[in-house]
Amino acid sequence: MSQLPGIGKRTALRLVLHLLKQPKEQTAFLSQALLNMREDIKFCENCHNISDTKVCEICANYGRNHEVICVVEDIRDVMAIENTGQYKGIYHVLGGKISPIEGVGPSQLNISTLVEKVKSGKVTEIIFALSSTMEGDTTNFYIYKQIAETEIVISTIARGISVGDELEYADEITLGRSILHRVPFEKTFKNN
């Protein structure tokens, strides 16, 4: 139990003791549910999102704009963006970001399938939605170099000061980007 992310030894012990108090059927049900999850959940053959079918619900939805692809690091990013209800395109899950320190290179990520999609001519825009870290920026730049010669729009999500944040606590890079990529005031209160 302590091998699960965010679970320390004390919490693992509490969970184990809780499971021992439960009826055997409940523990067996939990065990079977975990086995079913491992057997039934797959990765979408189109975008690499989790799915219980060959193609995920998002990619199978013809109401979505299949010409716009939002590139994310992992499945949690898809969930976060979907929760906003603002994005109507499809996704491409890289499965991480380039990090030489951690031994992750481009070949370990789902970059080649993204480049193939772009070069197929069916994509009009790529939106980079990777974390604003050195690794995220490196990954964005690597992909950009792979697709720069195509005639698609390449954009990135806006970066800046969060709603409710105080300027004095913002780091210099974020504050600087917020100033450089400022938006007209009217757009801050209009519903687009």
Q: Would you mind describing this structure in some detail?
A:
Strand 1 and strand 2 form a beta hairpin. The strands form two sheets. This protein has a four-stranded parallel beta sheet with strand order 4-3-5-6. A two-stranded antiparallel ribbon has the order 1-2. The longest helix is centred in the N-terminal third of the chain and has 17 residues, at 24-40. The radius of gyration is 21 Å and the shape is globular. The protein has helices at residues 9-21, 24-40, 57-60, 75-84, 112-119, 134-147, 172-180; strands spanning 42-43, 50-51, 65-72, 89-93, 125-128, 153-156. The protein is of the alpha/beta class. 39% of the residues lie in helices and 13% in strands.
CATH topology of the largest domain: Dna Topoisomerase Vi A Subunit, Chain: A, domain 2
Compute the number of strand runs.
6
Helical content (DSSP H or I, runs of 4+):
25-40%
CATH top level label of the largest domain = Alpha Beta
Q: How many structurally independent domains?
A: 2
Strand content bin = 5-15%
Query: What is the H/E string?
Result: HHEEHEHEHEHEH
The rounded distance between the terminal residues' Cα atoms is 46 Å
- Helix vs. strand class: alpha/beta
Gross morphology: globular
Query: In angstroms, what is the radius of gyration?
Result: 21 Å
CATH 2nd-level architecture of the largest domain: 3-Layer(aba) Sandwich
Main sheet: strand order: 4-3-5-6
The overall pLDDT, averaged over residues, is: 89
In DSSP terms (H or I, runs of 4 or more residues), the helix count works out at 7
For the largest beta-sheet, the strand count, sense and barrel status come to: 4 strands, parallel
**Weakly predicted, low-confidence segments:** none
